Sequence to fold (234 residues):
Amino acid sequence: MKPLSIGIPRLPCSRLSCMLRSHNIIRQLHMQTSPSHIPSPTPFVPDTKTFLSLIGRNLSQHAAKIPTWESLFSLKSMQLRKLGVEPARTRRYLLWWRDKFRKGEYGIGGDLQDVKDSVAHVRVVELPADRSSRALVRPDATKKLVVNAPPDVPINEPKLQSLKPVHGLKVQGAHTIVGPFVEPVKGTGGSIATVKVQEGMWEQRRGEKIDGGERRKVQVRRKRKLEELRKARA
Fold:
């Protein structure tokens, strides 16, 4: 007696191709009609040109092709390709930073609110230490923070308490502000500094390819080994 074989029924090729085609059409329509959240510009990133300049990789050269903030956050990868944003890894990098900005994930300076002519001042302020924790804190203990405030504007106590620390910057030693792209103001001993918009401030550097990268590594190393053997026999 032959054993019974239970198999999954196969669809005719015509029916299968129709189903795949329908699925692709629905997926494309969904991608075209799904609304994308367009975040508001920030004081440090007020326009498209500044955004492209900050993320680096020479994307600022495409600023004229993406003139508006809305187009920056709504164009699809294929549309960016038609505009001449090449190669594909550059488009992926732009889309990656676009999604990060939507989520409020910025590089240095992205959270600065008091900005004038692409320059923000930061300064060291001293606040009473947090006594809500279980750790023993002296009554006169204080903590030092780096906040975004102009140097010529006095900070009264209520405003002082409402200021948030600047992400990525810290106080080193007694009163020196340290962090990426920080430029100390002369005569302040490092307690007041500026952060200015610069090309590539937020750039994520590409890793260096070793032996041609993952796809060509085996082939490159094999050729090198054969060349070494050939030279050894000569």
